[in-house]
Amino acid sequence: MKAYNHKKLNSRGSILLLTLILLAVLSVLFLLVTNSVLLGTQSRQSLRTSLEMLYVAEAGLAHGRAFCVAHGENSPLLTRREEGEEMIEPHAEAPFEAWLPFGKGEYRVQAFRLGTDPQPFLKKDSGVLFVATARLDGEGRRRVCLLLEDPPSCRSVAWWEPD
Fold first, then answer.
1. Per-residue pLDDT tens digits for 26-52
2. How far, in Å, CA of 136 to CA of 60, rounded?
3. Is the peptide bond before 152 cis (omega within 30 degrees of 0)?
4. Domain coordinates of the chain in residue numbers?
5. Global confidence as pTM
6. Per-residue pLDDT tens for 54-80?
7. Residue (of 125, 154, 153) closest to 64 by Cα position
8. What is the C-alpha radius of gyration for the chain, rounded to an integer number of angstroms?
9. With CB atoms 3.0 to 4.6 Å apart as the test, which of 30, 92, 134, 155 could cross-link to 53 if both were Cys?
10. How many Cα atoms are found within 13 Å in the side-chain-facing hemisphere of 23?
């Protein structure tokens, strides 16, 4: 019979044990890095989509403001509608109520003529409120609001994003 060298066996076992521990640590680090990269990618995509929707909604507000400046008081679309009145059919020049394409998405602008009652946010009695809603394919919606002075000035008074 051959005699075994116990020191050689112990060193082989400890090397195997150290190798397994090292592989386990590297596997955990790999999983953590992969998870971090995936979360970063999802976060970046979410921010990008949100900004794209904001740009589309801003384009809607710009379109509405330009319409207000161009048509002023003469536009029937800026007149206040009573409850139950039929909507005016949108046409190519009027951005109101129709979904219009822009970039990767589309927007809809709604215009509301504020009444002649004093408004708490204006020093005047009235104004025009534009609400632009943007949507991207399957990515949700985002709304922004713009309050303008009455035509012909159509000067911006306030801009905000409702909840």
1. 999 999 999 999 999 999 998 999 899
2. 14
3. yes
4. 7-81+90-160
5. 0.66
6. 999 999 999 888 888 887 766 655 544
7. 154
8. 31
9. 134
10. 6
